[in-house]
Design goal:
- There is one protein chain.
- This protein is mostly helical.
- It has helices at 13-39, 41-48, 53-87, 95-106, 134-182, 191-212, 235-292, 306-320, 324-375, 382-395, 402-424, and strands at residues 110-113, 129-132, 218-220, 230-232, 293-294, 400-401.
- The strands form 3 sheets. A two-stranded antiparallel sheet has the order 1-2. A two-stranded antiparallel sheet has the order 3-4.
- The longest helix is centred in the middle third of the chain and has 58 residues, at 235-292.
- The radius of gyration is 50 Å and the shape is elongated.
- 27% of the residues are buried.
Length: 440
């Protein structure tokens, strides 16, 4: 839709003909737009829908505006027809005809009742009228058309976008509910079952609201003056779609449990059995340490936790009864606890056998120094023999006092270092012995 020329001096014949041609083209464009609005799918849906909320309020106003648009268009059509009739009186219009045409084409020549224009009037009062220039009338029709089209396009866009998507999500929801039911995920028994119920209620309510009040789910474009500028508000839909996807992943995990539950239970039994054997080995080793090592604090070895065995038995019972939704979280918890228990048992064994490891290290160090002494030809040195025998008796006797035995080994090392250092002094001018005199 466009606008006409503003008021001015009396038009000549050529100006009148150009104005009539322009008005005729404009009339055709307006009529085409109004007919398209009349036949718009969104408008037909709005006419037949049971609307609520903001959509009902705006549609009531829009319907009145569309009726008013046709009233204005009829007045515009009548004015254009009158102008054409005046111009058709004579081939060469007279001065009087041109003045009349100028007034009709540029003056406030179109009269519309105030009631039609939307102005209220008192009951029983005489109907007043309002006059427009053709340009002002076109501007007013443009405003009403843009507002009406904006409302119709927005409602149609929401109806085109959301209900179909909600229906698809609802269908997926039903498939998920059936799958959940097959693995025992039900409302009141599993959080995922409660989530499915909540999503179902939300989607049902969302669809009802979208159908009855589509404009409540429309976000106008900021700064846009074009009719229908904006987008459907899918916030609620997107949130529920994500929630359903999370539930589906959880149910898939439960299905996975159903498929590999036996293997996971076997692995759990093996882990706990290894932990028990390791703890038993630690208890045996503790007795050996207490018998062989003196003056040493040996940590107490605890027994296997009965709670894990009870939970393992409960998991096996869940599997037997096909209670997969209960088995799934229990298996995950048990797997972590079993790994932790095996680690604890290994750490306990390491802590208990630490004194034996210290004794073994001292024995190895003593023998290494004896071998060094032999390479240097000092194996028969009386001091070294005496100190070696003292250290060896302490390390190979039971119970062994590790602190005293370590001091004996250190005294033997010091004696070896002193003798090897003295043996190198006469050969300072020659090549040095590759063996050091310190600890190895």
């Amino acid at each position: 839709m466009g606008g006409t020329d503003p008021a001015g001096p009396v038009l000549d014949r050529d100006e009148v003909d150009r104005a009539l041609a322009r008005l005729g083209a404009e009339h055709e464009a307006i009529e085409t737009s109004l007919l398209a609005l009349q036949d718009h799918a969104g408008r037909r849906l709005l006419e037949g829908a049971e609307l609520t909320g903001v959509t009902r309020e705006r549609w009531a106003a829009t319907e009145a505006s569309i009726t008013l648009l046709w009233t204005y268009f009829d007045a515009y059509t009548a004015a254009l027809r009158t102008a054409r009739e005046i111009r058709a009186r004579r081939r060469w219009s007279s001065r009087e005809d041109l003045v009349e045409l100028t007034e009709l084409l540029r003056g406030e020549s179109v009269t519309v009742a105030d009631a039609a224009a939307g102005a209220p009037h008192a009951e029983g009062a005489a109907r007043l009228t309002h006059t427009f220039t053709l340009a002002a009338l076109v501007d007013r029709m443009n405003e009403l058309y843009a507002a009406g089209l904006d409302m119709v396009v927005a409602a149609d866009a929401v109806w085109s976008a959301l209900p179909a998507r909600i229906d698809l999500l609802a269908a997926e929801l039903q498939r998920t509910r059936r799958l959940a039911h097959s693995v025992g995920v039900r409302p009141g028994e599993h959080p995922a079952g409660d989530d499915l119920e909540r999503i179902t209620r939300t989607l049902t309510r969302l669809r009802e609201e979208v159908v009855s009040d589509p404009l409540a789910y429309w976000i106008p474009a900021q700064g846009s003056s074009a009719p229908g500028g904006g987008r459907p508000d899918t916030t609620v839909y997107d949130r529920e779609a994500r929630a359903l996807e999370e539930v589906r992943r959880e149910i898939d995990a439960v299905l996975g449990v159903r498929q590999d539950a036996e293997q996971r239970l076997i692995k759990l039994r093996d882990l706990l059995s290894r932990a028990d054997r390791t703890l038993a080995e630690a208890r045996t080793a503790r007795g050996e340490v207490l018998a062989k090592i003196a003056a040493t604090e040996v940590p107490v070895v605890s027994g296997p936790p009965t709670a894990l065995q009870e939970q393992l038995a409960a998991a096996a019972e869940y599997r037997r009864q096909a209670q997969w939704h209960r088995l799934s979280p229990l298996l995950e918890s048990l797997e972590q606890k079993a790994e932790d228990e095996l680690l604890r048992a290994r750490e306990s064994l390491t802590a208990v056998t630490a004194p034996l490891a210290v004794r073994a290290e001292l024995r190895g160090r003593l023998d290494a120094y004896k071998a060094k002494v032999a390479r240097h030809g000092l194996a028969e040195d009386p001091l070294l023999v005496e100190r070696y025998d003292a250290a060896r008796r302490m390390l190979w006797s039971a119970p062994c006092d590790l602190r005293v035995a370590e001091q004996a080994v250190l005294r033997y090392q010091q004696a070896v270092a002193e003798l090897l250092g003295a043996a190198r002094v006469p050969r300072q001018g020659g090549p040095q012995d590759g063996d050091g005199g310190g600890e190895s």
